[in-house]
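Entry type: protein chain
Record version: 2
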Amino acid sequence: MKDLYIYLVVFLAGAAVLAIELLGTRILGPFYGVSLFLWSALITVTLIALSIGYALGGRWADRGATMTRLYFIIAGAGLWTLFIPWIQRPVLVITEPFSLRLAVLAAAFVLFVPPLTLLGMVSPYAIKLRASNLSIVGRTAGDLYAISTVGSVVSALLTGFFLIPNFGVTRLTFLIGITLLLIGSIGLLAERRFMAIPLAAIGIFSIIMAFWLLPSEGPDPERGLIAVEQSPYAEIRVLDMERKRHLIIDGGVHTIVDPLSWESRFPYTAVIDLTRDFFQAPGDLLLIGLGGGSIVKRFARERWAVEAVEIDPVVVRVAQEHFGLEPWEGTIHPVDGRQFLITHDKTYDVIVMDAFGSSSIPFHLVTKESFGLIASHLKGKGIFALNVETNGWDSLIVRSLSATLKEQFDFVLALPTYEPASALGNVILLAAHFELELPHELEREFPARDDRVRILAWDNRFEADTKDAQVLTDDLNPVDLWAEEINLAARRDLHRYFQPSGLSW
């Protein structure tokens, strides 16, 4: 019976390691954005913690391994995991002034190294307990590490495919902590150790906190939090603030609308409208990246036939339920944008890429190869429009994307949506095989708000300096590195904007 319990402890420890690592993307992602840096930080911290745990566990076992100590190790890991939801916000606030890479690494280290180190101690400690003689040490070690790895595999599948989308991050974090704590407490009870009683009491108290005391992850319409969703791809929030409705995906604002009229309050959507001015009659639009559906609504209103590609089905549902997107306004394809281009043959008058993620554009969508696919899906007089967030009109990312577009298109224009030129904002890149000149003058007498944005963008249009600018390819694409500065500036602005409401992160 003791051996079976050791196997159970090892299995759960392996499962908890992968679950905590995956949860890290949802705990830190809304604050920092889910980027290459976040994944690198989490993997680094996990490997450091496990390495320390393996070394400490083996040395502590050699000093005299007992089941009691093993149960304390697993219970200690559970206890720290229970604290993560409570210390998360203070840690994020303290590390925010750091650079993005240092902040992500420091926050991950503080939150996750203690429990992961303790979980790393479990396997070498269990090997010492389980091995009865030297002739079977290798087999014993192999069996226990295999069990731990199987636990990690099961946990990776369950956590990513089922638990996070259905249970939420905070509840799942508490569930892991409570499970580890109770497993340790039950073991201590079996060993007749008095410490099992207070540990079990902490576990029961933690269950009460999880259901009653911890701030809810659910909506709070009275305060403006309309919806909170955990999809397989991101954390999604809908917030009403300052008479505007915001769609927030992993902490980044993707849509801002007037909740009464559904009119967009994001300036760049008005600049995207300029693509329609190159055509005498409504045509076919393909939108890559749905967001709240503002661009779909704007084109559908002008009688364009609209198709949109959105990989996250929860984003589609949220757009329909909370941003007024109607089924008749467009056909939505729930698939990755590049995969859609590979598997479909239809051509379009306008293709718009509005797929900026929580920290950068998905790298596989902004390469020479991807732009080649887009060019092949445009009609002869078709136009491609790419929305990109930049830190200044002449930023490296604008110049490099322009250089990459010129590999597939004859003419590329950059249309800034903001002033001054050195600020943070959106730039729209237009690409086509014909010279991009509007066939008519823009309305300048008593212009409406959207007209003013279009005038600003068109009057300040420019061709980016692509000399020495890197062409992005599937093989070499540092767009994540270049987006770091943009992401850091954007996050700090968003933190200041949303902090008074307390409704985000």
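Comment: The chain has 15 helices and eleven strands.
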